[in-house]
Every structure is written in C-alpha cells, then in structure tokens.
Amino acid sequence: MNRQRQFWLLQTGAWTAYGLESFLSEIGYGRPLDMWRLNAYDAICGFLLTLGIRTVLKATWSQPPAQRVRWGIAALVVASIIGGYAWWLAVSSMCGDCKPPKSWLGYLSYFFGWLQLLVAWTGAYVGIKLARQLQHEKETALQATAMAHQAQLRMLRYQLNPHFLFNTLNAISTLVLDGRSEQANGMVGALSGFLRYSLDSDPEQKVSLDQEIGSIQRYLAIEQVRFGERLRVGILVTPPAGDGLVPSLILQPLIENAVKYGISRREEGGRIEIIARVVDGGVLDIVLRDNGPGSLSYRPERADGQGGVGITNTRERLRVLYGDRQHFEIARLQPQGTEVRLQFPFETASENRTR
C-alpha cells in the first residue's frame, strides 16, 4: 500500500470515528437524534481543516526547523480561528436548543477547542512522517553499506596470486615438451575445474565447506604435479563441519601462502594439513598448518598485525561478512611451521534458507 493511500484511509477513518464518537456522546447526554447533522458537520470541518494544515506542512517540510515551526503554528492558529467561526455558524443554524455564549470567553473556547484538536492531529501527522523518514534513512544507509560491502568483496576476490596461473601453464608446457601428455591433460583438467570454480563463485555467496575443500584439492593436485613428493597433504573434516557454509575461496590465499612459504622454500618439501570441526557453541573451527619455515607475511608479531595481501584479504572478508562474530589467528609453531585458525558461526544451507 502506497503512502498516499495510507494517508487517505487514516484521515477518513480518524474523522469518521471522531464524528461517530461525538454523536454517541451527545446521545448519551440525552440530546436529540438530529444532532448527527451537527456532529457530521464538525467532522467534515476537521477533515478539511487538517488537509489545509497538511498542505502547509508538506510545502515547508524541507525548510529549516525554526521556519517549519513558525509556519506550523501559523497554520494551526488560522485553522483554529476558521474552525471556531464555522462551529459558531453551525450551532446558530443547526441546533435550536443551543444557546450562544454569554461572553467573549465562550467564543474563545470555540477557538481553543479546535486548537487542541488540531494540535493533536498535527502531532500525530508529524510523528508518523518523521518515523517514516527515519525508516527510509535507515534503509538507505543499510543499502549503501551493503553495496559497499559487495564492491569490497568483489575487489578482494580478484586479488588471488597471479603467479599461480603462470607457474601452472609453464608446468603444462614442460610436461608437453617432455612428452608426458597424460599428466599434462590431467593438469589441464584440474586447472579448468579450479578456474571454473574460482570465476563462477560469487564472493557474496557462501558455499559448503566440502565444496571449498574440493576446490582446494584441485588446486593442490596442480601443485603436486610441480612439486611431486615434496608436497604432502592431509585433510580431515569432521562431520558435520563439511555441511557448514563458508565464504567462497576463503581458504585459497592461505593455501597459496602455505605452498609458497612452507613448501617451495624447503628442498625436502613439507606437509600441509587442513582440519575442520564444529566446536561448542555452534562455531566452525578451521585450522590450516604447514611445517615450513614461513615468511614475514605469516608472522603474527608484525606491527600492523595483518601480513601480506592474502592474509589481509582473508581478515577483511571475514570482518565484512561476520563482524565481531569471527576470529582469525596466526601462530608460529615449534620448531618451525605456521598455523592459521579461522572461526565463525556454523550454519548450513537449510538454516540459511529459513532466515
């Protein structure tokens, strides 16, 4: 229902109720039934006078508050004078039993009676209008915030490691030159699946952890062609963690860092582990660790507390999506290695649809 229709329904209903209440009150005091004409006239006058006040309020709504108040007071005074005069005419012509006031104070009471009634109407009208305006401003602010978050998430999505694609294509080229066409085809298939998932995934949407792990496995399969036995992987997802929703590609920058700083820098390679479970309180707990030497971008003791682009992007995406309900932590392992822990609310696709 639009606002204009709401106004007319409220305006008509309120003044109809006012006229009916006045008529029943007169009947209750033993007045004749033909008083309905005077009560109807009274309600119609109120209906028309308040339309005039509304016109003034709408015309001056964009002006400074002090000026709006002055125009509002002027409209109320003029409307009350007109209402008092109209009531005097109605009493004189429609009510044979009614006697005119014996002094000017009686006529003044007509004015103040209308003023009191019109002030109440104006207060209700302005209150509803301000409430609607405040609601609109809140909705606009929320929409602007959501749009900013969407743009921010899209920007973060595309800041993946650009060297990965180059290294992969270089590895495929090497396999082809060496005549290892079967491995090259397998690597092309893995790359195709990984890129399809990366490009099709909406950063504003969430996917199940199982889907995210599947993408990570395709990525690691590509890297294992490059590193061979130097790269060892262990993944443990304890039910029902696999059904939990996670931001798409949230683990990708962390895995890239683990390969770059934990595996490639060791001649003997290393091991990457991903462990996911649901802990008490309905929190999805994901741990990613490697046994490599690490790098400055992984050190938690950095002055800015953030690290490189991948770490910064992961922190920022979690902050945008979960606010204070998320936790991101990087820790140095002994004698060497790095552990990254992500925690955020555990929710499934079915729970998300019901909200």
TrEMBL record:
GO terms assigned for molecular function: phosphorelay sensor kinase activity
Gene3D superfamilies assigned to the protein according to its UniProt record, in alphabetical order: Histidine kinase-like ATPase, C-terminal domain
One of the Pfam families matching this protein, by short name: HATPase_c
Segments forming domain Histidine kinase/HSP90-like ATPase: 248-347
Transmembrane segments: 38-57, 69-88, 108-128
KW Cytoplasm (keyword) present: no
Domain Signal transduction histidine kinase internal region: 151-231
Keywords annotated in UniProt: Kinase, Membrane, Transferase, Transmembrane, Transmembrane helix
Keyword Disulfide bond belongs to the record: no
Superkingdom to which the source organism belongs: Bacteria
GO CC terms of this entry: membrane
Annotated protein name in UniProt: LytS/YehU family sensor histidine kinase
